[in-house]
Amino acid sequence: MRKPFIAGNWKMHTSEAEAEKLIGELKPLVKQLQNVDIAVCPPYVYLHKSVYLTGESNIFVGAQNCYMESKGAFTGEIAPEMLKDIGCKFVILGHSERRHIFGETDEMINLKVKKTLAADLDVILCVGELLEEREAGHTESVVESQLTGGLKDLTGTDMARITIAYEPVWAIGTGKTATPDQAQEVHAFIRKWLAAHKGAAVAEACRIQYGGSVKPENAGELLGQSDIDGALVGGASLKADSFAAIVQAAV
């Protein structure tokens, strides 16, 4: 049985005071919830404070991105070792906004994945198609290409520390959500791909999150699908009661 994993991606939101307030409100709402992994991913500048604020709670902290080198003349970038040093547990990589706004390629994302794992951090690897790709019937080929590129050369041991997040780009921040059947269909495809390329044991153990306008109203039905093991939550993670309700739905 795969343990559900609910992670909140705050993106470029919150002030320091807002981050402190959000974590302070969230902790008592989820402290009794068991058999679920809960995480928040604040902006870089609030990561250290967030690690401190979550303290001994059942909430852990991840970063929204990192670079693929440990140190050097890379102005503005953050190394995974730096994130590990301040107490982060994982990094989100390959998010559609990184791919489509900042031009990150599968090759670049694969280098980041390898470097992040080498720094003893786990990874959430995001995959997903654009609206025009879905309408053209290319969802599976796009997702397969992203999986092939992003997971290149990774072993079964590596895969034990990777969560896949399926995020249809057309559903991120738009209010549109893939139907439970649409989401399940792609999640099942991802698990089938993992079985074929990484082995049956990896496919069975790997957690696959859904992301894309997840909210309390649709979380239960989405998380009830057999191959959906959690959620990567955007906007709803900025409100403690909404995020807690999604965690509760996973439980």
Q: Given the helix and strand composition, which structural class is it?
A: alpha/beta
Give the overall shape, derived from the CA principal axes. Answer: globular
Corresponding CATH architecture:
Alpha-Beta Barrel
What is the tally of helical segments?
A: 12
Largest sheet: 8 strands, parallel
Strand order of the largest sheet: 7-6-5-4-3-2-1-8
Indicate the percent of residues in helices.
40-55%
The CATH C-level class name: Alpha Beta
Strand content: 5-15%
Order of helices and strands: EHEHEHEHHEHHHEHHEHEH
Count of domain modules: 1
N/C terminus separation: 13 Å
The low-confidence runs, each spanning 5 or more residues with pLDDT under 50, are none
**How large is the radius of gyration?**
17 Å
Q: Going by CATH, what is the homologous superfamily?
A: Aldolase class I
What CATH calls the topology is TIM Barrel
Q: What is the mean predicted local confidence, pLDDT? A: 96
How many DSSP E strands? 8
Features:
single chain; 251 residues; alpha/beta; TIM Barrel; eight-stranded parallel beta sheet; 12 helices
In words, what does this structure look like?
With 251 residues, the chain is of the alpha/beta class. It has one domain: TIM Barrel (Alpha-Beta Barrel). Helix content is 45%, strand content 15%. It is built from twelve helices and eight strands. It has helices at residues 16-30, 47-54, 80-85, 96-100, 106-118, 131-135, 139-150, 156-159, 180-198, 200-205, 216-223, 240-250; strands at residues 5-9, 37-41, 59-63, 90-93, 122-127, 162-166, 208-210, 230-233. The protein has an eight-stranded parallel β-sheet. α1 (16-30) links the parallel β1 (5-9) and β2. α5 (106-118) packs across α7, α7 (139-150) packs across α9 (180-198) and α11 (216-223) packs parallel to α12. The longest helix has 19 residues, at 180-198. The protein is globular. The chain starts with a strand and ends with a helix. The model has no long low-confidence stretch (mean pLDDT 96).
